[in-house]
Amino acid sequence: MNPVPPSAQSQENLNSAPALSAAQRSNLLPLTAAGYAWWRERSLRALGTAFTLEREAALFRALCRPQAGQDWLDVGTSAGFYAGVLARADCRVLAVDLSAPMLRVGARREPDARIDWAQLNMERSDLPDASFDGVTVGATLNETRDPAALLRECARVLRPGGQLWLMYLRRTAGPLQSLFGRPAAGGLNFPDPAWVARQLPGLGRTDGLGVGAVQFERYVRDGRPDDRTRGTL
């Protein structure tokens, strides 16, 4: 079973965390949660690339190869996209999010007994060390107030040999990124892949793929970067 069932959710975990970014606060709204799945399906197209959710799921499965019986953590699950992909691979999944409305939407969209849903801030979690075979983070890295803290937590809960899958918008220094990086306009952050790697000592990047401004990366605990690391399409 997953190490933290829904009954073990801690409201202290949410209350003791730093103030949320504007993007995080917007995700607490039921209206945002209701439309999120629609937006997620079209988001990469809106960013100028014809990369569908089906292709994203296929890329994840091909590189991470989730195995039946593994324990995975889906960070910032939103409408449960990665949680559903993992459950269909017969993995046990703990799907966490700051937003209770998002969790309700995810549970309705992915009604699978292999998924547990929990309201949790991964910038400061009380999850046990080394408790997951894999962690997925889909776009949450851009919205979190403290991306370095979130990455540290993701690394901390990985077992030896465990893998971390990231999907995020990388820094391009474009005017829209400057605008949405302002606190009043969302407080989004756009990490550089080299910066992300520096936050993950003990993990090696084995795969990286750029699709427009979107970055997909796979890290392995105790792994080493190799010559298969991919560049930008």
Largest sheet: 7 strands, mixed
- The counted number of beta strands is 7
How many DSSP helices?
A: 10
Q: What is the average of the pLDDT values? A: 85
* Rg over alpha carbons: 16 Å
Q: What is the H-and-E element order?
A: HHHHEHEHEEHHEHHEE
Q: What percent of residues are in strands?
A: 15-25%
**Net shape:** globular
Distance between the termini: 39 Å
What proportion of the residues is helical, as a percent range?
Answer: 25-40%
Strand arrangement, major sheet: 3-2-1-4-5-7-6
- Poorly predicted regions: 1-17, 225-233
Task: Describe the fold and architecture.
Helix content is 36%, strand content 22%. It is built from ten helices and seven strands. It has helices spanning 11-15, 22-26, 30-46, 53-64, 81-88, 100-109, 140-143, 147-156, 175-180, 193-198, and strands spanning 71-75, 92-97, 115-119, 132-138, 158-169, 203-211, 214-221. Strand 6 (203-211) and strand 7 form a beta hairpin. The model is unreliable at 1-17 and 225-233 (pLDDT under 50).
Question: What would the keywords be for this entry?
Answer:
alpha/beta; 7 strands
Strands, helices and their partners?
Blueprint: H1 11-15, H2 22-26, H3 30-46, H4 53-64, E1 71-75, H5 81-88, E2 92-97, H6 100-109, E3 115-119, E4 132-138, H7 140-143, H8 147-156, E5 158-169, H9 175-180, H10 193-198, E6 203-211, E7 214-221
Parallel strand pairs: 1-2, 1-4, 2-3, 4-5
Antiparallel strand pairs: 5-7, 6-7
